[in-house]
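Database export, one record per block. Field names are fixed; values are copied verbatim from the stored entry.
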Amino acid sequence: MHVVLEQLDIAEDVFRSVVELEEPLFSKMPVKRAEPDAKHRRHWYFATDNHAITAFVHRPEYILEKFKEVVVPIYEKAYGIQIDDSNIEDFIKSIVQDNFTYLLFHELGHPLYSPDSSWKIKVDEETGETIKEPGDE
């Protein structure tokens, strides 16, 4: 299994352990997954329909590359540190897992705190705007 997908497994374990204690009514909410697809236009897709969380990691190698080439240098600059080469792989795994854990909790927040999104539909209708996918015209 790809190291990025392993981190998603760990993130879901962390997520479940906290949700079971803090929000037991949501502890059985399924997390749907998809098989990786290196040709997919998105690297990942996280969403919820208030009944299940979608956690699709389409391009794990791309994610690993971007965390290494983009996120690590930003982190080093922001915190004024240099991550030792011997620890870089563990550090990347840790921040990928932290990111996935955050995304799972973020998606849980929709049904937990705002299960009725009819207000957003009303705003979209009134303004004539909708959330568009990247590349949509």
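Remark 1: Strands lie at 31-32, 44-48, 53-57.
Remark 2: Helices lie at 3-22, 60-79, 88-113, 118-127.
End of record.
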